[in-house]
Amino acid sequence: MKKILSVFLVLLSHSVFALDLARYPTELTSGEGVSVVIAPTVDNTQALVKVTGVNHEIDGVVFLAKVNKQGDDQRLKYTYDGSKRTLIYIANNYGCCSYTLYLPDGKDGIYLGKKDEVKSDTVQAISALYDQQLQQGVQKKLAMFNRKKHLAYQKTKIQQADDNVAKQCDTEIPTKVDWNKISDSDLGSYAIAAYCAQVSSKIADQCAAKPDFKETAKEFKAIRCDFTDKLKLRLNDHVLNFKTAPKAPNQGQFIEAYLNNM
């Protein structure tokens, strides 16, 4: 995955010199401090895009986005955190146009409108800034998969599930994951914690619904979760060994049935 991304970034660094930018950019504002500049190429297949006024690390960074056309609509896509994402969605409504900004990891889009005035030197300025940041490796750093960030988030979610078990069952049952076995691809594609915390969640539910189950729960010393292609749950030496599979259906029911039979 990293090798492919590196090749993409090398090609990207060479393509900047061939950019033929249109004379006039599009400047947008949310009316609440968020601004966006879009400088498309003459053939409208790519565009330089800069977002400012947001509390995010992409603020002030110029990205070379690809214009993906979907009928009359367009999506300006760029690479961030190891994956392709939509930065600006342009909908052709009743002639043209409505604009929506999507921040990485944001739940809702930010609606934008065109500014009345456009500065004459905007294209030159954004192009120069893009070249400068490209040489500094700013875009490259943001494009790389941030494993540390993803790991921290997933570990926090698993800890929250374990804390709930301690609260509901009056005993601690830590969920253990061998993170070295989790690939960047799986970590970026799946909510690992949502899968691995399923056993903790069902144990907590059992303790809350049936107080007698608290005594059973005290027999569990840990939960060991493996990310595999087969669904399996077994108790061995007081450790619940859970093998979760992303494509396996009804995992919650499977775990609940196992616990009910103990």
Describe the structure.
It is built from 9 helices and 12 strands. The N terminus is likely disordered. With 262 residues, the protein is α+β, with helices and mostly antiparallel strands. The chain folds into 2 domains: 142 residues, no CATH class; 114 residues, no CATH class. The longest helix is centred in the middle third of the chain and has 23 residues. Helices cover 37% and strands 27% of the residues. The chain has an 8-stranded antiparallel β-barrel with strand order 1-2-3-4-5-6-7-8. The protein has a 4-stranded mixed beta sheet with strand order 9-10-12-11.
Question: What is the topological layout?
Answer:
Blueprint: H1 2-15, E1 26-29, E2 35-40, E3 46-52, E4 62-70, E5 73-80, E6 83-91, E7 98-101, E8 110-114, H2 122-136, H3 138-143, H4 147-169, E9 175-177, H5 184-189, H6 192-196, H7 198-209, H8 213-217, E10 222-227, E11 232-236, E12 239-244, H9 251-260
Parallel strand pairs: 9-10, 10-12
Antiparallel strand pairs: 1-2, 1-8, 2-3, 3-4, 4-5, 5-6, 6-7, 7-8, 11-12
Could you describe the largest sheet, including whether it forms a barrel?
8 strands, antiparallel, barrel
Question: Strand portion, in percent?
Answer: 25-35%
- Over the alpha carbons, how many angstroms does the gyration radius reach? 24 Å
Quote the distance from N terminus to C terminus.
43 Å
- Uncertain segments are 1-5, 7-16
Helix-strand pattern:
HEEEEEEEEHHHEHHHHEEEH
| Strand runs, count | 12
What's the quick description here?
By secondary structure, this protein is of the alpha+beta class.
Keywords:
disordered N terminus, 8-stranded antiparallel beta barrel, 262 residues, alpha+beta
